Amino acid sequence: MAGERVGHSLQATALVNEAYVRLVDGTTVAWHDRAHFLAVSARVMRRILVDHARARHYQKRGGHAAKVTFDEALVVTNEPATNFVALDDALEALAKFDERKSRVIEMRFFGGLSVEETAAVLKVSPATVMGDWRLAKAWLKREMRGDHEHDA
Amino acid sequence: MTPERWQRIEALYQEALARSPADRSAFLAAACANDEAMRRDVESLLAESASDDGFLAKPPLPMSAYGVTDIVLTTMAGTSLGGYQLRTQLGAGGMGEVYRAHDQKLARDVAIKILPSAFTSNPDRLARFEREARMLAALNHPNICAIYGFEEANGVRFLILELVEGQTLADMLAEGSPSHAGIGLSVGRVLSIARQLADALETAHDKGIIHRDLKPANIKITPDRVVKVLDFGLAKAVGGDGSSPALTHPPTLTRSDVFQGAVIGTAAYMSPEQARGLAVDKRTDIWAFGCVLYEMLTGRVTFAGDTASDSIAKILNCEPDWSALPTTTPASIRRLLVRCLTKDPKKRLRDIGEARIEIDAIGETAQDATGADATRARAASRAVWLPWVAAIAVSVVAIGTWAAARRSAATEWNPLAGAAFSRVTNWSGTEEHAEISPDGRFVAFLADRAGQLDIWVSQLGTGKFDNLTLDIPPLLTPGNLLRSLGFSGDGSEIWFSPTGNPGKHQVLVPLTGGAPRPFLGPGKSAPSWSPDNARLVYISPNDPGDPLSLTDRTGADPREIVVRRPGKEVFFRKGVHTHNPVWSPDGQWIYFVYGPDVFGEMDVWRMQPSGESAEQLTHQGAPVNYLTVLDSRTLLYVARAEDWSGPWLWALDVERKITRRATMGLEQYTSVSASRDGGRVVATVANPNANLWQVPLLDRLVEDRDAQPYTVPTERALAPRFGGTSLFYLSLSSRRPGDGLWRVQNGQAFEVRNGADGVLTEPPAASPDGSRVVVAVRQQGKRRLAIMSADGTNSRTLAASIEIKGAVGQGTADWSPDGAWIVTGGSDAEGDGLFKIAVDGSAHVRLVAGEAHGPIWSPTDDLIVYAIPFAGSGGRDALRGVKPDGSPVQMPEVGVRTGGAHRFLRSGAGLVYLPGIESKDFWLLDLATGRTRQLTDLTDGGFLNTFDVTPDGKHLVFDRSHQNSDIVLIDLPKK
Fold first, then answer.
1. CB under 8 Å to B110, separation ≥6 — which residues?
2. How confident is the model at residue B146 (pLDDT cuts 50, 70, 90)?
3. Residues of B in contact with A31 (CB under 8 A)
4. What is the pTM of this model?
């Protein structure tokens, strides 16, 4: 995780610009409501952060495949650093057998949606979202540490 | 991991979590006796959950960070910012995004402009902005959008602005000529707008404030045709000192400009000196004024170019195309345009006041010309005026309107002008029917704070409230329209109707609390004491026409007032209604509300206590209520507007017999009451909202936890009706404060019919295939059916001879399953009835004679069920049945809510209904057995208007609305 500590504090304006472009760019998405918009924003934020993390990953390894579109004038946030690449992979794995929990994490973490908003988007109760959130976090933590013996 | 195995893991995990930590191992060991891997899996997940290490605890970006606000704020509608509740986004402009918001402290609607981080994150720019904003806030002019304040909350900086309804001049010009191909506004209209613009600029320039970014998009025209200039001076506040706005920094750059890579809209109105990056002064505004004036007259952008640099090249080098000006353009206006659009600022018109004088001169000429023949001859003798005078002949009305607007602006009359508004209550839930004591010291109102509607009393200013009716059973039902409590003449007691039915006994209860005592006899209501406290006038709502009677102050010795109007029919008679009598300050007049339909057509009248000189004072033709007297010539009341928007607060000048809306915000006023000296007023302000919810139709009783929001794309939604794959519902219109018709299909919302074309108050009736929809349109106080395609096209009146009657919400119709017929209750020349109308308009058949509401047509095509008033039971109807061929069908005796809130199950085997006006719960009538069963047990405090069964027949979708009302105190300026 250490490698991500500085690099992921994306310059906020750059992120927003990128997110805005991605959201409006040729989109025909009809916004259902505020929660739906946030849900889609969450997906976009996730993609941007993860793409950026992967790009840096390549660059460190001398790769030139990905072009970084962000202003590298980065600000350092006080948030605990997160390994976005590992989180993204784990979320993908989780989605394979429990799509909803994967989306709960995406919306609440990447999108900053409240429990109620997440519940509204997923059309489930807030209690269900809380249950999903707790279990999915536990599973992701374990998965990202990679020390669990997978049952085949 | 298979989904099945994961489900098992999840179930065990949740079950284990529900147990105490000590019991978990034993539980899991037992539950996973045959699956050690699963036990370990669950154990490890539990262990992960036990450690709180902040994993994913915070979003990767602080969402309130300045940079993120730009995107997050797009979605802020519905949230709160400081003391402001954000409603809908109005637009994204150069200086950030603008929201309609509600100022909870001052109980008014405002616009909130959220500043982008770009300049709030820079302390120097921020400080400068604050200074500018303070100066701009001092700019107080009716044609300039006011700045109320500049605040910070949640790390966001925002301006609080006057909320201006209406469309921008840019929209208006684009609408007038879709191709912008050179059709301007009428000359009269242009002059009216230009005059107001000049006035606004003059005032600002006098204070040394320059707009710097005047353009059609920054000019709004309210529905009352008042011009409001937006963003005054903000270009400087945002852009720096304004002395050197380089080309790289045009006055405004909207986000859409940026993303379209063009700044045409902005560059086109820059003055030559601005375009060159030189110092600017008020003459820059005069240039822009010229550009706007030219564009209004011609419908063309003065210096149009495909790119910003094209525009700028023209600004610097080319003359406007003067030949594009309409031939009707007055010569003096042509001269004015040339002077405004002179490239050298030294030779340009020096003072916008000169423009105002020029325009006024034309206005006076026009007025003369519309007045006398002699004047017209004089004007015609001046050759230069000939084309203009000819134009007058066709634009007399426009000019006349404009001149009248000027005159009324000069004598702007609004008794609430300069009043100070403050909030008395800020409770959640409903507060209504606020009455102020004669001495202005106490307020009494109804509130549901203690669960039921009670009378609460407060001495104004103390912030202390007493529940006067704590020990008295429920008083009044919500939604009661008429004044049903008030202070006695000496202010020591409060009268009210303990059952909520004004026809029953009135009661007086001491202001200081204590046992209530009966007052007046049964069937008497709405007492009002004369100013000398010697006499009392009241209504008798059980008698035809609700006649007025006079008694002494105790209620003894009553005498009905006989209104003498020689040659006219009897005044108090069947078919008319009277309520809310109040006295003039000198006791010489009694004002009252009178008309044929308490829910529809009422007006203010007055007469002498002797019954002489009865005369109509208003032509509101709308539900008028809460009449209250400010002074010897001024009354206030609550009424809906002609287009059914509101209710708003209105003022009546008795001498001139003129009325005007006294509040221009969007907050609704549902009651008003003035102290005896007219210096203080209390009012109820409501901000009603409405949302859709759904519950499943189950064999068991459905409870709150089964209810879920039914999400639609609009913030407000009510009166849902399904048709085919579409949901139709009512929601606020995009252009006006009144509900229009919306349709959702595949998650896309579409405004079928704008409320500006007549506010809709009844649930729509969607055809079974969803291709067409019928609505009840209110025009000139009457409701008639209109049918249109689901996209809003092909709208036409259906059965023009049938008028929809009854309380709002009853005028609903339904379709036959084959889509060939509409059934509706209403009234034609031969009287009330239930009608079957051919959708092609070819015929209508009276199925049943007599009053009938809310018909529904069975999906099995063999039964139409409708409601008739249930004798002796307010708020409830009885169900009746008829076959589509008109033969009657026996129905079980079931009491249903007045207003036609019942729907067939999709199978046709039963119908879902609401048992009464207060009911929040659905019941099912099984048509085979005649048995009824309660379907839901819901507790939400909202008011349920109506509902529908989903196309799959498995859910009910219903609306819930909340009044969100509060009491405000209005202190009027000393006279």
1. B84, B101, B102, B103, B148, B160, B161, B162, B163
2. confident
3. 713
4. 0.50
Considering only the beta carbons, identify the residue of B46, B57, B747 that sits closest to A30: B747
Amino acid of residue B541: P
Tokens for B802, please give them.
Answer: 């049938």
**Domain spanning B167-410: CATH superfamily:** Transferase(Phosphotransferase) domain 1 (1.10.510.10)
Assess A27–B contact: CB distance below 8 Å, yes or no: no
| Domain B420-686 falls under CATH 3.40.50.2300 | no
The ipTM assigned to this model is: 0.79
Class of domain B66-162: alpha beta
Q: Using alpha carbons, list the distances in angstroms from residue B148 to B83, B113, B139, B172.
A: 13, 11, 10, 27
Query: A17 pLDDT exceeds 60?
Result: no
- Looking at chain A, which residue has its C-alpha nearest residue B750? A30
B167-410 matches B420-686 in fold: no
Domain limits of chain A? Answer: 2-145
Chain A interface mutation, best of B5, B61, B955, highest count of A Cβ atoms under 10 Å: B61
- CB contact set of B770 (below 8 Å; sequence gap of 6+): B722, B723, B724, B725, B726, B745, B790
Which tens digit of pLDDT belongs to each residue from B452-487? 778 899 998 888 888 888 766 655 554 456 778 899
Fold topology of B689-962 = Neuraminidase (2.120.10)
The helix/strand/coil state of B201 is helix
Identify the residue whose tokens are 């006055």.
B251
Instruction: Give residue B140's identity as a one-letter amino acid code.
Output: N
Q: Which residues of B are catalytic?
A: 213
- Could you give the C-alpha distances from B778 to B598, B760, B794, in angstroms and in order? 15, 7, 18
How far apart are alpha carbons B298 and B456 in whole angstroms?
60
Contacts of B401 (CB under 8 A, 6+ apart): B188, B192
Query: Residue B603 is which amino acid?
Result: D
Contacts of B70 in chain A (CB under 8 A): 13, 16, 20
Instruction: Provide the shortest C-alpha distance from residue A53 to chain B (in Å).
Output: 13
Q: Quick check: A129 contacting B, CB < 8 Å?
A: no
Write out pLDDT tens, residues B860-909. 999 999 988 765 545 567 899 999 999 999 998 888 877 668 999 999 99
CA distance B771 to B26: 61
Residue B19's SS3 state is: coil
**CA dist., res. A109 & res. B747, Å (int):** 25
Mutate to test the interface with A, among B43, B99, B711 (most CBs of A within 10 A): B711
- Report the candidate in A42, A152, A16 with the shortest Cα–Cα distance to residue B69: A16
The mean predicted confidence, pLDDT, of chain B is 80
